[in-house]
Amino acid sequence: MDIKIHHSWSISSKLWLAITVLILAVLGGLGLAITWLFGDFYLQQKLDSLGTEAAEISAQLATVPSWSARLKLLETFKLTSGTQLVLLDPKGNILVISDTNTSQGPRSTIDGYLKGSGGALFGGWSRNLRPSDFFAEEYLVRVLTGQTIKIKAFPVDGGGQTMLLAATPVGTKPVQGVVLLGSSPIPIQESIATFRWLILYASLIAVFLAAVVSLFFARQVTRPLALMQRGATRMAKGNFLPIQGVTSDDELGELAEALNSMGESLENHMEWLSQEKNLLQGIVESISDAVVMLSSDGIILYANDTAKALWQENETELQERKAQIINFLQTMNRPNTEVEKFAVLTLGMQVLQVVMAPMSEEEGIRGHVAVLRDITASLRSEKARREFLASVTHELRTPLHLIQGYLEAIQDDVIPENQRGEYVELVLDEAKRLARLVTDLQDINWLERGQSLQRVSLDLDSFMNDIEQRFQGRAQELGINFEVSKGSGELFADPDRLLQVFMNLLDNAMGHTPRGKSVRVLIMDDESQVRLAIQDEGEGIPKEALPFIFDRFFRVNKARSRKDGGMGLGLAIVRQIVEAHGGTIKVESDMGKGTIFWITLPRMVVCPITL
């Protein structure tokens, strides 16, 4: 398996590498150009020197008429070091060979040449070569026409060695001979090679120095960029400290100032967004209504604590209830709908009013926000209000109709005079019952309006004795055993309202207790509270009626007359008074065994309670 390794190059490394490569390319190209031009220039200069020297020798030889004089004249010539002279006749035959490598003068024949130079090296070659070995017939033809040639030639019979040649004619029309000068290019090539090495070494030293300088320059140039890069990375992570260390007045300094300004703006904007987020979150969390945010595909993005409480119980999610809410919201969350939608969701005994509004953006609708308001209490309150008005109307209408009917009958002489006194008594009873109804309604209204209780310190023993004296006579009339426990200590309460509680409860208890049975008032107290119990041995209350026993106008036995069963306001008033004292009341009952009302009252109230 091939493993690819990616190298991360910094901008400093890239800049240093680019400068180094550029310098290397420039110096390398310059060195190659210089050595190439120098080599050609040196060779051409050598050829020009050979041509000039051959022309001078030819001109001097042309001034001498005989060959013997010419040969003596050749002995006086001093050739340039490394140069060999060959004198040819017009047919190309060698007349004289002379070079600077022999200590003797010119040789006039080939035999003499072989004897005089046998075994000697010429110009560094491994065997003896003479210029005539490189002088081809075509060159001879050109010289015989009067031309002077300067060439770099290869041996006529082949080979890899070369020689620099210069040939010029002796005399004109006709040409009497040819002066041929030859020199080996090896010394020049060695000089060129040495020069090339010098260029190479100089280039390497220059490249090294340039690399060091460019590295320092690259780091100095890219250091501000590195500082800004680290600063930008730090800003991306939420740290908006200003970038330090960039002091230049050029574009990099301006960029650093721009980044610092941007960081400061971002920090201020982030602080503002954080404040706005906290404010919005605080508002949403403090809303008593449930708030749910849905994405465009119906997924819950956010829900406040009130919303979570709809599908949670003791931090445990009720999956069925949550699924029902989500399905309902997804049904309302129809695409391409940009208007608010209203609906009502019923969850068992709970009724929720749902309002859903779209979250619009430039690209379209991002999602929806749903507000779920629990209207169960308001619906129940409205129902209770209607039932209360209906009950009050009914309770008032009945005695009023009776009073009106009896009075009209008396007025119209329908009732005989001897019976009118009895009917007047009936009218008076209905009027008294109507007055009691109005008084109870006033009491409920007084308690619900939050009127303050007139609290005083009560002696429990004295209060319980008062209760016993008030109801002992009625108990004897009904043939009921009435027992009252003795209390101790004091209770901070409103005596009139507390007496009203006992009167309502004991009236109900004695009214539902058969003759020979008992009604008891029990008291259990401690340092902080007093627990009272009113117990009877009557017929009891059905279990299905217990949750509604303290509701207004509720009567357990609908068949009982209002005269016997009351109007259903007494227990409602009892609960209002007990709760106004900061206490609680509850009821327990068994059919055929009796009923007991438990009242718990605090002994002292630090902050008086107002209703």
TrEMBL record:
SUPFAM superfamilies: ATPase domain of HSP90 chaperone/DNA topoisomerase II/histidine kinase (SSF55874), HAMP domain-like (SSF158472), Homodimeric domain of signal transducing histidine kinase (SSF47384), PYP-like sensor domain (PAS domain) (SSF55785). InterPro entries: BphY/WalK/GraS-like (IPR050351), HAMP_dom (IPR003660), HATPase_C_sf (IPR036890), HATPase_dom (IPR003594), His_kinase_dom (IPR005467), HisK_dim/P_dom (IPR003661), HisK_dim/P_sf (IPR036097), PAS (IPR000014). One of its GO terms (cellular component) is membrane. One of its GO terms (biological process) is osmosensory signaling via phosphorelay pathway. PROSITE patterns: HAMP, HIS_KIN, PAS. Residues 391-605 form the Histidine kinase domain. Its main location: membrane. It is an enzyme of class 2 (transferase). This is histidine kinase.
